[in-house]
Every structure is written in structure tokens, then in C-alpha cells.
Amino acid sequence: MTGDEPVPYWRLSGFYFWYFTALGAFLPYWSLYLASRGYSAAEIGQLMALVAGTKIIAPNIWGWLADRSGADLRLIRWAGFGTVAAFAPILWKPGFWWLFCITLAFSFFWNACLPLFEALTLRYLAGRVERYSRIRVWGSIGFILAVSLYGSALGSGRATLAELPTAVGALLAVEWLASLAIPRRRARSISQEGRFARSFWRKDVVAFFLVVMLLQASHGPYYVFFSIYLENHDLDPERIGLFWVLGVLAEIGFFVFAPRLLRRLSLRGILLTSLLLAAVRWLLTGWAVEHTVLLCLAQLLHGASFGAIHAVGIQLTLRYFPGRHRNKGQALYSSASFGLGGALGSLVSGEAWMVLGPEWVFSGAAAACLLAWLVAWLWVDRRPACGARP
Predict the structure, then answer these.
(1) Hey, what long-range contacts does 153-160 have (CB within 8 A, 24 or more apart)?
(2) Residue 384 domain flag
(3) Exposure of 175 by Cβ count < 10 A (0-12 exposed, 13-18 middle, 19+ buried)?
(4) What are phi and psi of 187, to 5 degrees?
(5) What's the number of domains the chain is made of?
(6) What domain range includes position 93?
(7) Helix or strand or coil: residue 15?
(8) H-type helices in 181-266, by residue range?
(9) Measured between alpha carbons, how far is residue 30 from residues 13, 51, 150, 265 in Å?
């Protein structure tokens, strides 16, 4: 692919929109749905950890297939279809172990879609990577719409948690249809830069993956228990949804200004600053939940704890794994962060939630961010981004 090939902006943005719309219906409310069915905190943590845990394996298998075959778009479409087919049995409200197996199956397919699509988008943007945020921002907009509309429907009684699986299944189907609208790319020549193992076993690369793993582990109690945490403090579903929306609005704010920031600041500087802000966020979430202003501030820091670090992570991964290793690199980034980190965070928070209490669980999340900051300060990439000041 050449850098002057037209970029199908709206079709790429459309896939991000529907993928994150489905995620916006699933992530904030799925734990509430599971709780409404009588599952314990430990069982909810296990099921949510399974969604994250399949990201350890699935993206690497699909990324390897994509790099070997060059059929990344076809694989995205098959993964989307597999997600819909595997999710469908949830509509019959199976018991825990059947739900465990179904979650394992649909997560295996769903967790393949985004890393493959990230690599596809970056290939379209060859030489114009700074435009990534302007495409990715539509995913955040979709997430906001799903969270706010479904939260409002729950709060007004127009929808119930029992109907959530149907809504998520329908959105997953639309996501798959959106993948069918992506045009096929022209045949590309694949560069042969180095061996994958040589790219991985470098001190700064290993340190980078440790950092994103720790960061996503710190998000575990947030993704699994934040909605339940707010509900226990007498917030209704509509207000819970508004707090999720506030966090994603901050994420959108970063994506809007990301091209300018990435030209002016080093990736390392953005990473270190964002990790410190993430630690502050979790401390505020744990200890200031009854103070609305401070909790709003904590949610606004989502722009740093997720938006900024994800944008940096995508660019560093592209730098570490160029050419024919691009899909495998993005898959490894997803596996280490959202997979291993997300699974560990979900499991540990699920076991510790009732033992230590929310305040100390979120304090542990802050400690994970501070450890990640130390690793990043010692070893992660010290070179400035292209065009950035040292």
C-alpha cells in the first residue's frame, strides 16, 4: 500500500462506531445484568475476566493468520460473524457454566476484530498516522450514545436489564454488517523487516508491554464493578450512565487534540504524565465517590488513563513492529494490555472486592499505575515521536 491511496474515512469510522456502540451497551451494564441474575461478585469477576482473558490468546492467533495470509479484511468479517453466532445462545439465559462456555466462545471471535482492524486502519494511514485519532474518535462517540441511551431507557423504565442481551446481540450484528462495507485494499508488497522474536525481546519493548499490562490491570475494578459501586451508593442507572459518558467525553477530547499533541510532545512524556494522572484517578474513585465534583474529575481523567495511553500505545507498537509484523504487533499489544492486564485486574478485584472493600481495591489500582510509571521511566522508549520536541 502506498501512502497516497485514498482513505475510506467514513467506512473505517463506521466500523469503530458500531464496535464501540456494542461495547458501550455491554461494558457498563453487563455486570449489573449478571448481578440481577443473582451471580456473586466472584462469579461476575470470573465471567468478566474471561472476556478479557481471551484477548491473551485470540488476537495472537488471528494476527498470525492475517500476517501469513494477507487476508486481514476477510478475517475481520469472519470474526464478526462468529461473534454474532456465538453470542446468540445467551438470549436463552443459560446457567453459569453454559454462560461461561458461551462467553469464552463469543469473546474468542469478538476480541479478534479490533486488533485486526487497528492494523488495517494504520495500513490505510501509511505515512499519515496522526490522522488515526480522527477516525478512532467515532468509536468513542458510539460508546457514549450506547451508554447514555440505554442508561436513560433503564432509568425511565422503557428498558430492563433482562433485555440487555438482545440489545447487545443486535449491535454485534450491525458491527458485522459494517465490516462488509469496508473496501478491499489494493495488493501490497510486504516488507521483511527482521524477525518477530528479535523485535519483541528488547528491553524497551518488554518494558512497554509490562506498562500497558499494569495499566489495564488497574482498570479491572473500574470495568467490572464501577456500575455496581455507584448503584450501592444509591445512583440510578441513568446517572451511572452519565458518569461513564463523562469519562468517554474526556477520551474524545484527547482524540480531538491528539494530532497536535503528538507532533509537539514526545510519546514518552505523554505516557509518563498519563500514568501519574491515572493513579490520581483511581484514588479519587475509591475515596471520593460521595463527592460528585471529585468523582467527575476522576472520570475526566479517563482522557489520560485510557485515551492518551492508548494513542501512545498504538504508535509505539507500530514503531516496534513495522511491516509484515504489524498485525502480530497489534495483537500482542491487545493481548498484553486488554487481555492479560484486563483478566488479572478482573480476577483480583473480583476476589478482593468483598474482602478489602472498594476503597482499597481502587488504591491497589493506583499502586499498579505508579509501578507502571516507574517501569516506563526506567526503560520505555526515550526517543521523541516524529516531529516532536525531545
Answers:
(1) 154/29, 154/237, 154/238, 154/241, 155/236, 155/237, 155/238, 155/239, 155/241, 156/238
(2) no
(3) buried
(4) -55, 140
(5) 1
(6) 9-181+193-379
(7) helix
(8) 196-200, 203-218, 220-232, 237-264
(9) 25, 11, 12, 37
- Which 8-state DSSP code applies to residue 223? H
Tell me how far the alpha carbon of residue 203 is from its chain's centroid. Answer: 25
- Residue by residue, pLDDT tens for the chain (390 residues) are 444 567 888 999 999 999 999 999 999 999 999 999 999 988 999 999 898 889 888 888 888 888 788 788 999 999 999 999 999 999 998 899 999 999 999 999 999 999 899 888 888 887 676 678 889 889 999 999 999 999 899 888 899 999 999 999 999 999 999 999 998 865 454 444 555 555 567 888 999 999 999 999 999 999 999 999 999 999 988 899 999 999 999 988 888 888 788 788 899 999 999 999 999 999 999 999 999 999 999 999 999 999 899 889 988 988 888 766 677 788 888 888 988 998 899 889 988 998 999 999 999 999 999 999 999 999 997 654 444 443
CA atoms within 13 A on the CB side of 360: 8
Cβ contacts of 87 within 8 Å, gap of 6 or more: 102, 106, 110, 165, 168, 169, 172
Does a structural domain hold residue 159? yes
Please say whether the beta carbons of 62 and 75 come within 8 A: yes
Report the length, in residues, of the chain: 390
Amino acid code (one letter) for 231 = E
What's this model's pTM, rounded to 2 decimal places? 0.80
Residue 335 to residue 356: CA distance in whole angstroms: 28
Nearest Cα neighbor of 122 from 317, 299, 268 is 317
Q: How far apart, in whole angstroms, are the C-alpha atoms of residue 22 and residue 116? A: 17
The answer to the question of residue 1 being in a domain is no
Strand stretches in the chain, DSSP E: none
Joined together, the cell numbers standing for residue 283 give 484514588
Q: Residue 244: which of 298, 169, 173, 315 has the closest Cα?
A: 298
Which CATH number belongs to the domain containing residue 288 in this structure? Answer: 1.20.1250.20
Whole-number Cα distances in Å, 315 to 133, 202, 381:
11, 17, 11
Query: Does residue 291 sit within a domain?
Result: yes
How distant, in Å, are the alpha carbons of 5, 148, 250, 305, 320 from that of 247? 35, 12, 5, 10, 29
Beta carbons of 102 and 86 less than 8 angstroms apart: yes
Q: Which three cell numbers stand for residue 280?
A: 490520581
